[in-house]
Amino acid sequence: MFGICNLAMIPLRSEPSDRSEIVSQVLFGEHFEIVEQLKQWTYIKMQFDGYQGWIDFKQLQLISEVSYNQLSSEAIVLNADLIEYITTPSNLLIPIPLGSCLSFLNHSDINTANFEFEGTKAIGIKNKSSLITTAFMYSNAPYLWGGKTPFGIDCSGFTQMVYKLNGYKLLRDASQQSTQGEALSFIEESEAGDLAFFDNDEGNIIHVGIIMDDNYIIHASGKIRIDRLDHLGIFNAETNKHTHKLRVIKKII
Question: What is each CA distance from 175 to 108, 157, 203, 226, in whole angstroms?
Fold first, then answer.
């Protein structure tokens, strides 16, 4: 079985319960494979990054395997506005956040509600220089564990969505993203758009941010913010202390 999200956003949970931890979010138009079906809950595997978790069965639209494969083979089309509306012929409005997927709108067998979109679209691979411009669209978005939207986002959700809007694929969690790309030896070798990863005292990767010019970094810590980056890690000028310990810098593009 296969499905697609036809709501603005639905929570992806670690366990089949409304009280369970939200590990990620499924945005409008994202499609997935249904791995297991309980009475109320559905265990899914996201097509884009392979991420898995539980969603409420009431919050999905079933699609055929043929439709799933068609969507998976096509170029991804995304909403490039901070927030936009999906409309129907009966004037139903559904607000959708930045990064929502619009690829299925041209498929009449999936788009049975006749959704329409008239906003700005992001499609194709963009220059690396566009990453920072996209990152600024999330400025001051509040930190939210498992979040992927400008209304709440975590560190790896932020980096994944920024890269996705520019045509590049990152995995979902910081530890997973740290396995991608080419490691750099020094900050001086990095350029705007590269990723910096940070670990805890046990050596586990727990944080990621996007490097900017002149030794700055934009990342999710309380909110999407800009701080200094040096060989030790992230330095917060407001508290006058380092907040994250640098582990490795990766060039993805």
Answer: 38, 12, 11, 21
